[in-house]
C-alpha cells in the first residue's frame, strides 16, 4: 500500500508516496535520494542510519517512516550549509576520523547532537554519546579527537585547523 | 535490506481512538510506541500484524508528575526522558539509572518506558530471522512446537530482558492498563507471568497507559546492576534491582530484591524479610541475601553466555548492589 | 582566449619564496606530513557514493535463496511458481553458471550458485531478479528445492576422520576429501634442538574464529549493455581478480567485462575474492537486459564470512638457559569451513610467517586445513599469522617466566637482525623491531609494572612481523604487480589512474601525496581515479598489505618520468641544467635561486610544447630472487617486512572475569610514514580489532551448523565505551625498497594485541588463557580453578602479598 506523506528533511518539506511499511531510512535513501544515511545492520544494532529527529539522534532503519511526519529530519547532507562544512565535518577530515567513511554519517549526527547540548564534552561524555554508533576502522580514537577539536572550534569560533595548530 | 511485511500504520491522537483501533483489529494489530523492540522483531518475522497503532502521538500517554504520593509516568515517555527528568532523578534515582543503562542513546531517544515494561522476552533461538529459524526448525515461542533450551520442554523459557521492570518492582510500582471496554491496575509484581511466549497479563488489545510509583521514603536506597558484554547496546545478561530502606544506623526496615534476565519472569527473591527485616545490615546479612538469590535463580541456556557463570554472577552482583547502596547518598525528600 | 585562462590558479595558494627556501632544506615537501585525505571531506559530508548508493534507471533487485542444510545434495529445484509471480523477471540456479571458481587458481571449488550440493547453511542455491526486494523475497519463498541431507561436520577433527563423507571430491582418488591443504616443512633438526634445550615449553592453543564485520554489507550491481558489454559495480577489494573470474565463469571475453569498485565501506579481507552476488547480478543482468542490484542483509554478510580461521595449535618451544630459541615445533589443525578460498595460502602462512622477528635454530610446522560444513574462512587482517602469533608469543612469555628473564629482554636476545634471512629463508631487509620494543618498554613504564602491579592489574608484551605484499601474484605471471598511469592537464591538474582499491585505508590519498611530492602540485590539483578495470592499469588488489609498497612504487616510477620531462623543458627555457630545477609548492624553481620560478602549470605547458602530451605509466614488480629454495618457499616471501611491539595493561575483575583493557602501547615499524596520521589510524584500527578478538569476538555455530547469531547485536564488536586507550608510536626503519622507505601499516599492528593481552591477564591474576576469546566466563573459571589449586596448596598465591580471591557463593 502506497501512502502519501509530507516529510521535512533538511529544511525542505516534500510530499512523497511511499509503501506504508517503509522505514524512514528506506524513504530517505530510495525515495528522496538522501543516500548519506547508511544501512549497516538492518535492525538498530550499528547506528550507521542515525539521523536527527527534532534534533535528537534516532535510528532511521527501525523507525516507521510515518513517525517522521510533522517532525524535522536532519541527515548528514543537512549538516553542511552554504557557508561550508560543519566544524565537526572539518574536524573529521582534519584528523582522519573517517577511514572507510561508512559509519561516519551516523557518528556525525550523534556528535552534532552532543555538541548542541554540551559545548565542552569530556572524553567520557563523547564516548557515551557515540556508544550506539559502531565503527570498525578507527578504533574510535581519531573520532574522539575530532569531536574534541570540533567542540573547541565551536567554543572559540575559529576553524578546526587553527585549533589543531594551537 | 531486511524487509518488513506490509502493514497499515495508524496514528491516533487520542487514547480512545487507539483503543478502538486495537479492538477493531484485535488479533491482527499491535500497538507501537518507540518500536525499538517491535521493529526488529517484525523484521525477523516474529510479529506480522496488518495494523500498527502508533502511540507516540497520543497525548494522554505523555506525563511525568507527582500525584497523590505517587510519581506518574506516561507510557509513551521516552527512556531518555525517564533517565534525565529532574523529578524522576530526585525521587527515583534507581529508575533513572536503570533507564540510562538501556541499549544506547538512539534507542533511548525513541524507546519508551511503556515499551520497556512490555518488552518481548528474548532467546537465542528466537531473536533471529525467518530464514534462520526455519533452518533450525521453528521453536515453540513462534511458529513451532519444540524448545531448544529445555529439550523436551513444553513451556517457553525465553528471558525477560528489560531493565526498568526489576527496579520498578522493587519500588512497588503499578501499571495502569486500558482496553476499549475499561481500565484496570495491576501491581508490577503481578504483571509478569512465567510464560516466555507472552510473559505479561496484558491482553493483546490492552494498552499500558502509565506506570505509577509510590514516592519512596527518603531512607530508601536503591541499586540497579546490569551485567552485559559491552558497555553499551547490549541487553542484560543479568539485571539486579535492590531497594533497601535503612535508617542511619543501618537498621533494615524493608528490603526488596529482583533478579531479571534469566527466565521469562523477573524473580522477586523471597524470604528476605525473614533474614534481614529489623536486622542491622552487616556483611553476614549481605552474604545470606546473596546466597538466597543465588539459590532461587537458575539460569538456562536461553542466551549465548555460559549459564554457570551467569548463575555465579547473581551472588556477585547482589553484593555489588549492596555495596552501591551503602555508598550512595539518600534520596532527596 | 589567453593561455592563462586555461591554466589552473594554484599559484594563488602556492608557496612563498621563504617557504621555497625552507623547502630546499627538507628532504620531503609532502611525505611525512599530517595531511588530510583526498576523500576525507567527501566522506565527512556523506557525499561519497558507495555501491548501494548507486541506482540505475530500470534497475531490478535480486535476492539469493540459501540452503537451510549444512550438508546436502540438491535433488531438484523447481522455480516455475516464482517465474509466474508478477514482477519477477528471472530466476537463475547453479545450472546456469556451472563453471567453478575460486580465488586461488589451483583450488577452484565454488560455484556462483550450488550445482549439486550445498556445504553450509547459507550456501546460495538460486537467485531471483524482480522489480523490488519484496517481490524477489516472495519469489524465493515459492522456489521448491528438494534436498537429500548428508551428515555434516563442524569439528575439523571429526571431518578428518570421516573421509567416507567427503565435503569435496578428493583431489586424487584415495585422498581424504575433507583435507583442504596439508603442509609439512622442517628447517634444521628440531628433535636435536629440543633435546639440546635447557627448557622446553609445550602448550595447546585454540584461536576461535572471528569475522571482519565491515559496517557496509556487500553490494553489487550488474549491467549488460546491448552491445554485449558487462559492467559490474561491486564493493570488492580485488577488482582485478573479480574481472578475471567474472569473464571466466560467465564465459565472456574478458575485454568485454568492466569492474568498477566504488569506495568500499570497510573490508578487512572480507571482500577479497568474488562472491555469489557478483556472478548473480551479472548473469541476471544478461538475462533480463536490465541493471540488477543485490545488497546483502547483515545476516548474509555473516554467511559470506571468509573470516579468521579457527586454529588448534600445538606448540613445543625449546630455549637455552639464556632464553635463546633452539627449536619450535608446531602442529596446527585449521578449520577451513566449506570451501578453499585462500586456504592454500592460509595453510602456509600459519607456519611461514612466525619465523621473525626472532632467530630460531630449528623450526618445524605441520598444518592441515580441513573442510567443515560452515561458512568458508579466509583472509582477515593479518591473514593466517595472527593465530600462530598468539601461540608463539605466549610460549615465549612462558619461557621467560621459566627462566626468570624479563619477557622484553628475552625478545631482545632473540632479535633476528637486519638484512638477513629467516630460518625458512625469507629475506628480511629493514627491521626496526628492537626500537619498537624499546619504545613500548619506555612509554608503558614496563620495568616499574611487570610483576609489580597489584593483584588484578597486569602488563603483557608481544612482538610480531608482517609482509608488505606477497612476492608472487595469485596467478603466475611475470607482469607487474601494480601499475599507475598519470595524465597532466594544461591547467596543472594531474590525474592518477590506478587499479588500487580504496577500502578506507587511504590508498587514494597515498597516491596523491606521492604525485604532490614528485611534481610539486598542490593536493587539490590531483584527481585519483582508481579501481575501474576499463580505465585503470592493473593492481592486484587491497590484500596482504601490498598497496602502499607496490602501487606507491609504481606511482613514483610514473611521476618521475614526467618530472624528468618537466625539469628538462624548464631548464631549456632558463638555459640551465635540469638537475637544478625543483618542483615544489606549486612552482618550478631554481634550487640556487628561488626567485627564479614559474607556476607549475606553466612548467607543464613548456614540457607539453616540447615533448607532446604529458602522461606516463609506472609499474612495480617484486624482486624474484628472495624466496626460499624449497617447495612452498615462495609463499610468505615479501619484499619487506613490518615489525610491531605492544604492551597491554589490563584490569581483571577476579570476581566476574571481566577484562578491562586499560591501555595498549603500540610501536610499529612502517619503514617511513608517508602520512603519520593515516599510519596511526591503521595502527589504532588494528589494535582495536585485535583487542576485540582477544576479549569478546567469537564466530561460532549451533550444533546443526547454523550460525550462532548472525547480527551486530550478538556478534560483539566493541562500542566507543569498550575501545581501549591506545598510544601509537611510529618507528621508521626506512626500507631500501619501499616507496620513500615505506612498508605496510594496515595489518601488522594487529598481531601482538592478542598475546600481549593474554600475558597481561597472566601478570594480573596468574591464569594462562590459551583459548580465545578471554570472555568473562572463561577468565572467571580460570581464576576459580587457580583459587582451588591455591587452597589445595598446589600453587602459591599470585603476587605478594597474597590476596585471597573471594569465590562466588555456590549455594547450599
Write up this protein.
The complex is a heterotrimer of chains A (166), B (333) and C (812). With 166 residues, chain A is an alpha+beta fold. Chain A has six helices and five strands. In chain A, strands 2-1-5-3-4 form a five-stranded mixed sheet, with helices on both faces. In chain A, strand 3 and strand 4 (56-59) form a beta hairpin. In chain A, helix 2 (87-95) crosses helix 5. Chain B has 333 residues and is of the alpha+beta class. Chain B has a domain at 222-327: CO dehydrogenase flavoprotein, C-terminal domain (Enolase-like, domain 1). Chain B contains 13 helices and twelve strands. In chain B, the strands form three sheets. Chain B has a five-stranded antiparallel sheet with strand order 4-5-8-6-7. Chain C is of the alpha+beta class and 812 residues long. Chain C has three domains: 3-30 and 479-620, Aldehyde Oxidoreductase, domain 4, CATH 3.30.365.10; 52-150 and 212-304, Aldehyde Oxidoreductase, domain 3; 311-472 and 628-777, Aldehyde oxidase/xanthine dehydrogenase, molybdopterin binding domain (Aldehyde Oxidoreductase, domain 4), CATH 3.30.365. In chain C, 28% of the residues lie in helices and 23% in strands. Chain C has 20 helices and 28 strands. In chain C, the strands form seven sheets. A seven-stranded mixed sheet of chain C has the order 3-5-1-12-9-10-11, sandwiched between helices. In chain C, a hairpin with a 2-residue loop joins strand 23 and strand 24 (593-599). In chain C, helix 15 (507-519) packs parallel to helix 16 and helix 16 packs across helix 17. Chains in contact: A-B, A-C, B-C. The interface between A and C is large, with 56 and 56 residues.
